[in-house]
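TICKET: design request
STATUS: open
ATTACHED STRUCTURE:
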């Protein structure tokens, strides 16, 4: 995940103030398949730092073992010691099933909306119309329908 655009020196986190006090909303880009079908590689997310997190919310957090790495996961339940977070794509891994409960201080932001940029193969009239309908969506706390229909 990377920030879009990069933070300037004026908005960098400062001791005692925190990033949320300086930049409550920010746009970040998704990289990787861990949140498919909800989020795809290349999607842009509007995130709110310091927002209250509830079970089911998609959140931005620092990886527990590589804290310079920001990741996006779904906060599924609050447990002793923090949040249990899962990837929507169960085959991607890299969630609490690998590293356990994530401490509260590592959960940085809540995802408010997803923007899917127009791709080159969507230049037809039909492609542009379907993109316009689905490009900007709020990210809901509910899991995607396809996850509930998965065969067991």
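STATUS: resolved
RESOLUTION: sequence designed for all positions
ATTACHED SEQUENCE:
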């Amino acid at each position: 995940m990377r920030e879009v655009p990069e933070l300037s020196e004026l908005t960098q986190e400062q001791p005692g103030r925190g990033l949320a006090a300086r930049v409550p909303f920010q746009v970040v880009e998704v990289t990787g398949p861990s949140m498919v079908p909800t989020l795809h590689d290349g999607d842009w997310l509007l995130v709110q730092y310091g927002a209250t997190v509830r079970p089911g919310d998609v959140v931005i957090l620092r990886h527990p073992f590589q804290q310079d790495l920001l990741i996006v996961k779904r906060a599924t339940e609050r447990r002793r010691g923090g949040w249990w977070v899962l990837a929507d794509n169960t085959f991607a891994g890299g969630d609490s099933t690998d590293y356990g409960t994530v401490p509260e201080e590592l959960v940085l932001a809540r995802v408010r909306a997803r923007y899917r940029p127009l791709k080159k193969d969507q230049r037809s009239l039909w492609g542009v119309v379907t993109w316009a309908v689905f490009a900007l969506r709020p990210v809901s706390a509910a899991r995607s329908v396809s996850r509930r229909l998965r065969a067991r």
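CLOSING REMARK: The first strand starts at residue 2 and ends at 3. Residues 38 and 144 are 6 Å apart (CA to CA).
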